[in-house]
């Protein structure tokens, strides 16, 4: 059995009022991953809801975590989770919404800055490094002059909702591919030639 272990954090805001917002797409991806492993989220002392499972029968172990804090305070729970499971930042995968990627696309990367994303900013500050893997789920830019802050805190539009299940499936597949095959192989699979 593969002894590799990954902490997979889905960013979002807590509570039912935010559950379907674009900003919560990271937590939607974690719900998909938990369904695949028949794992259920339980409250944990790290200020997060946690579910544990494997990618396949003998695949790497995934610790799926949804911080109970608001997006801009994600760092504290992530730092606590890394300490609790004795994991390095190189074993962290953060799944988050990304304005700079068109809706229904995903991009995978390791390291870098926060790009204006408040959840990433707080995680980098709390753990002292940006050296972790990101699954960036494209939500596109707001239409017209709508402020980005309003756009991310709105639910997906009707046409987007029709395509959302496929986007969540792709992002969950990407997390599993990173854990099982490594980032480079996952990038080759999920980044199209046109990129």
Descriptive labels:
alpha/beta; 21% strand; globular; 195 residues; seven-stranded mixed β-sheet; Rossmann fold
Structural class: alpha/beta
Sheet with the most strands: spatial strand order: 2-3-4-1-5-7-6
CATH arch. level architecture:
3-Layer(aba) Sandwich
Radius of gyration from CA coordinates = 15 Å
Ends apart, CA distance between termini: 36 Å
Helix fraction bin: 25-40%
Brief rundown of the structure:
The protein is an alpha/beta fold. The protein contains six helices and seven strands; from the N terminus they run βαβββαββαβααα.
Task: Spell out the blueprint of helices and strands.
Elements: E1 5-10, H1 25-36, E2 42-44, E3 48-54, E4 61-67, H2 75-84, E5 92-98, E6 106-110, H3 118-127, E7 133-138, H4 148-152, H5 158-181, H6 183-190
Parallel strand pairs: 1-4, 1-5, 5-7
Antiparallel strand pairs: 2-3, 3-4, 6-7
């Amino acid at each position: 059995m593969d002894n590799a272990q990954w902490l997979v954090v889905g960013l979002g805001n807590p509570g039912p009022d935010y559950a379907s917002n674009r900003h919560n797409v990271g937590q939607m991806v974690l719900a998909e991953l938990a369904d695949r492993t028949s794992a259920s989220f339980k409250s944990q002392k790290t200020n997060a809801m946690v579910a544990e499972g494997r990618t396949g029968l003998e695949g790497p172990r995934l610790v799926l975590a949804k911080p109970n804090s608001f997006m801009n305070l994600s760092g504290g729970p992530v730092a606590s989770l890394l300490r609790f499971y004795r994991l390095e930042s190189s074993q962290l995968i953060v799944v988050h919404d990304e304005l700079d990627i068109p809706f229904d696309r995903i991009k995978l990367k390791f390291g870098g800055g926060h790009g204006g994303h408040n959840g990433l900013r707080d995680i980098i500050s709390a753990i002292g490094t940006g050296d972790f893997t990101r699954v960036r789920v494209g939500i596109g830019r707001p239409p017209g002059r709508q402020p980005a802050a309003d756009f991310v805190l709105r639910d997906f539009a009707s046409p987007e909702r029709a395509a959302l299940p496929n986007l969540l499936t792709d992002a969950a597949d990407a997390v599993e591919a990173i854990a099982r095959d490594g980032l480079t192989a996952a990038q080759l699979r999920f980044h199209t030639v046109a990129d």
